[in-house]
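Final report, results section. Input specification for complex C-07:
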Amino acid sequence: MASLLLSPAEQDYIICGVESGFRADGRGSLDRREVSLRTGMISQANGSARCRIGNLGVGTDVLVGVKAEVNSWTPGEPEDVGSIVCNVECSPSAAQEFEGRGAEEINVELTQLLDRILNGPQSGLNLKNLCIIPKQAYWVLHIDALVLDVKGSIIDTLVWATRAALMSTSLPSVVVETISDEKGNIQSEFDVVDDPDNLTPLEGVEHLPISVTFSQIGKRYVVDASEQEEAVTQARLTVAVSPAMEI
Amino acid sequence: MSRQELLSPEGLRVDGRRANELRRISCRASVLNSADGSSYYEQGNTKVLVAVYGPREPRSKALAQHDQATINVEFNVAPFSTSERRKRSKGDKRLLEVASFVKQTFEGAIQTTVYPRSQIDIYIHLLQHDGGTLETCINAATLALVDAGISMVDYVCACTAGFIDQKPVLDLNFVEESSIETPDLTVAILPRSGNIALLQMESRLHSSKLDEVLELAMEGCKHIHQKLDQAVLAAAGDLATKLSR
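Structure output:
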């Protein structure tokens, strides 16, 4: 993550403050900054959300878009599930070193993190529903996140925005026809209904996890570290919890 | 798409507009908190977000020019912006071309000699693509630069125009742009002086028709200039009320 240049005096100030229970902006150690969340701004994407933490000037800003595409099955993949592909891009407006190729490392790190949370049974999404015809075609959900601003707590913002985008995602309905030809083989064809009113929401989105990040500063923990606090953090623990209280 | 479908006999286009109507424009300045200047610009279904930083220290001393500011433009297309999702790598030639056009356009408009040895960064994000990429980028960047307080000679307003069925049409959308026979002319002007900052065309157009199409595009630019002006005044008014509280 981008780090500020803090003088030893400032670092000391933050560490001692946290140990005594005070934070630079007056919050308690478990208080978060203000969160603002909006969904559905991008009409061409199947789902979208923008999440902002912090107010009036200094904050973290993430924009997530979800697009669904139909993919043909290739041998070697599991036969009856759809898949989710994540991609995180940090924009140079977040920090000057993200210009050009500078953001690649952090992009990969955040992408892997999001992938770990969403792919697999722990995410709660019903991947079997994403399959259109077994062994032939399935939905691929492309989750693209655009990080516009980073001022601490990027992981949390990213996960919340993704969850909101997935909750607002709706897939077009698919009509599956099965035709049997002379030899008795059954062939299936599918047709994506191009009707904007005929959309189905994703299943299982209520079980998506939300993450909370704890940062250790000195001997105590704080939640939702700001940029300066992150620069002094010694260790960070992110826990993703689903509504059923599973980790 | 055959030509007949783009312009119906009654004079209506695919989205219900007449030949000389612009799409609906809505724009806002100061949408990003940490950028020196930012703007969000929508023209029809094309949405662009621009962040401007500067003047600030150049990233490498080699880029600094002793008598003027360096302008750096980075153009990002979001993968969810087109109807089929497509991820473009940062080195994509088309993206670099658009970025370089924007840079050259603004080199003529920004008073770079006022900020020697510094760098002005313009980061453009295309959130939704429905035709007219270059024109929306230039208009949005103008608004963001004004929001950042960077001195410019004049606004830079851009508009596209084309030629369908022997009639000049204004502000092409994606469907009209992608039809092969429609020429697509993008022009950016400085409204007060009428000077042209950028003129770009694709496909081919008979030279006798160029004047008509150009004039129509310049009319469109003047309208856009008014819209941008309103947005700047709104943002300034907002700021004034906040400061006076």
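Chain A has four helices and 13 strands. The mean pLDDT of chain A is 72. This concludes the modelling results for the funded period.
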